[in-house]
Amino acid sequence: MKKRLLIIFVTVGFVSFIIFVVVFLSHNKTKKDNVQSNITNVQSDKTNIETEKKEIDDYHLIKNALKTKNDIYCKRLKEGNYDQCVYSVAVYHKDSDFCQKINDPNLKKECLENLEFEKIITGSDVNECFNLEVDKFRKQCLKDFFVKYYNDIDKCKKFTDDTREFCESVVYRNIAISKHNEEMCYKITDNNIKDNCLSELKKIKPPLDNDGDGLSDSEELSYGTDPFSKDTDNDGLSDKEELKTYHTNPRNKDTDGDGYSDGDEVKNGFNPLGEGKL
Asked: Residue 48 domain-assigned?
């Protein structure tokens, strides 16, 4: 009996020991795996951070700088681009103090003048443009004023030399575009503005002229003629000929009331407006 109990006791003890060993080893393995996993994750995160620093492109760095108004992103750009990045941030936020971070003295001056230019063109005094020392801002400032407020060549006479010619070029362009007149572009002395004038006219569709008589539909409506008929009064003269050449009434086939139509009189060499020959 005692021998049997001893065998049972030894067997239970051995099984318990085996179970303990298995559990202990399993726990250590899990713990080791977790530690290794954490190490791997930390290394992976570190790698991702380093990769992000390397892979983020200049476009997104500048975008972040503009969004946060922080030049730390500008410092991560390729060598030589820091100043330009700061310039962009300063202009974007209209902050002249930010311009002071620029190292290049010429670019710093340009940054400050850019902001001054923005203030001037929101005003109404064209003479303030002459206070700008950077040529491109001074010229653009003048152009903005000429485009907005100058529609008559005579207004340019108050300026002298190059400024007057530049003013006239801008005004001629404005007139050419508004009247769809390509010939007016050739009066422009500034080559860049002339090229722009011709280019713009090629893009602009001519005014609608349904009957093809040379008068736009809007003109015909203002004269009271039929925009769908070249000869509203059927006298043998087109509406454009009556209005622009013979100065007869395009809504009356016999303008002078002598019994002969305007078209017949012109055809036979007589004055459709009264006595005598053409």
From this structure: no
Q: Which amino acid is at 56?
A: I
Burial of 197 (0-12, 13-18, 19+ CB in 10 A): buried
CA distance 207 to 213: 12
Is residue 176 situated within a structural domain?
Answer: yes
- Backbone phi, psi, residue 270, to 5°: -100, 160
pTM of the model: 0.52
Domain end position, chosen among 114, 141, 168: 141
Distances (CA, A) of 133 to 59, 99, 115, 127: 31, 17, 13, 13
Is residue 8 domain-resident? no
Domain for residue 132, yes or no? yes
Higher-pLDDT residue of 163, 38:
163
Report the DSSP beta bridge partners of residue 270. Answer: 277
Tokens representing residue 42 in the block: 């930390």
Q: Do residue 111 and residue 76 come from a single domain?
A: yes
Q: Which domain holds residue 181?
A: 150-205
pLDDT digits (tens, 9 = 90+) for 2-36: 455 555 555 655 555 566 555 555 655 555 555 45
More confident residue, 144 or 10: 144
Quick count: other Cβ atoms within 10 Å of Cβ 211? 19
| Count of the separate structural domains present in the chain | 3
